[in-house]
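Example 9 (inverse folding). The structure is encoded as follows.
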């Protein structure tokens, strides 16, 4: 099994990955097309530069890169592998970091990797995602583990000129949210056309994380799953929007 998880930021992907990594035989590579991640065996300086966003991948280079990451991760960190998994963020497509579209990406992955499964995770509450992203940028805290607890960070949202960096949308906040939902529907439609799985953060992770796990692993041997999953991550932004957003009334009136 080869599992490819697609998502924007602040949608629970790290939490989901922390669960998947606890399943027997899963070799999880994380965001391989991203900065500040381990450079796996077999990559040269050009590969590293491209990994960090300075270059642009063709479809052939994209597949070659995944194969290198997969072989490097497996040889260094994994024993018996029944599932290899990695993550790819939407901004790579939206900012033309790849020289191909999402549809071509899925087609080529299915051609190259046997028994391939796609997952797209999104947040139904788009405003909450944008707020969480802005808070994380401002306080430089993206994950909390162990005994760490979140501190309230208050922010101001620019209702006239906002930028969703994950989906590369800029404009009035209300328009950004509408366009973001439209783009996410496009990703989901393509994923579903390829027999993939859609996870909604609110229902499939926040309310009951086992719902998300079951959607992904429903056709896996049940003995691979642990009797109980360990939850090691805490919410970075558990507060009400009206407590976080200083100009909350202005934001509501902008819709």
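The amino acid assigned to each position is listed next.
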């Amino acid at each position: 099994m080869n599992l490819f998880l697609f998502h924007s930021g602040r949608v629970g992907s790290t939490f989901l990955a922390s669960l998947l990594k606890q399943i027997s035989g899963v070799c999880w590579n994380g965001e391989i097309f991203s900065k500040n991640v381990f450079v796996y065996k077999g990559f040269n300086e050009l590969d590293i530069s491209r990994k960090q966003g300075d270059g642009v991948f063709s479809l052939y280079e994209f597949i070659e890169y995944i194969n290198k990451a997969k072989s490097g991760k497996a040889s260094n960190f994994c024993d018996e592998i029944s599932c290899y998994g990695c993550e790819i963020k939407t901004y790579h497509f939206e900012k033309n970091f790849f020289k191909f579209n999402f549809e071509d990406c899925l087609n080529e992955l299915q051609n190259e990797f046997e028994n391939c499964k796609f997952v797209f995770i999104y947040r139904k509450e788009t405003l909450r995602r944008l707020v969480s992203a802005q808070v994380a940028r401002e306080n430089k805290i993206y994950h909390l583990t162990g005994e760490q607890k979140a501190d309230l960070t208050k922010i101001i949202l620019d209702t006239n000129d906002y930028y969703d960096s994950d989906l590369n949308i800029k404009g009035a906040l209300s328009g950004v949210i509408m366009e973001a939902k439209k783009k996410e529907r496009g990703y989901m439609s393509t994923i579903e056309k390829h027999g993939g799985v859609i996870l909604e953060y609110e229902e499939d992770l926040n309310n009951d994380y086992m719902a998300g796990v079951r959607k992904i692993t429903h056709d896996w041997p049940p003995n691979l799953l642990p009797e109980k999953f360990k939850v090691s991550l805490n919410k970075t932004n558990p507060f009400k929007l009206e407590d976080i957003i200083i100009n909350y009334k202005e934001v509501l009136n902008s819709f």
